[in-house]
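Why does residue order matter? Because the sequence determines the fold. Keep that principle in mind as you read this record.
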Amino acid sequence: MTIFSKIIKGEIPSHKVYEDDKVFAFLDIGPLSTGHTLVIPKEAVSTLDQLSDESAAAIGRVLPRLCRAVMKATGARDFNVLQNNGASAHQVVMHVHFHIIPKFENEGLGIGWKSKSFDHGAGADLAKKIAAAIVG
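Structure:
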């Protein structure tokens, strides 16, 4: 059981901003900026690829609405939505979660983006492999 499961059950207090039967959202207690909000499914799985279609759809329905609410409440004009999967991808709590991180001049997420060159032949082969691996 993760800290997020305990928050959902009310065993650990949180500053809840939203809850329905599938989704729970609350303020991050280690925020990168004012209004940094976590959006989590009530389904307890570690990574996005393990999440059921039903829980993913529930998050998809409310995530834009929660982003709008965070922006309106904080006055931020820009924001990041971040979702990490696995320890090497910087996931700390092994329960699927999305960060809504308002971006202000001196607050928010900083990102380094180290692009690689793209081989179109290899890309075409990889796109076929990915398409073939998609299951409904």
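The chain has a mean pLDDT of 96.
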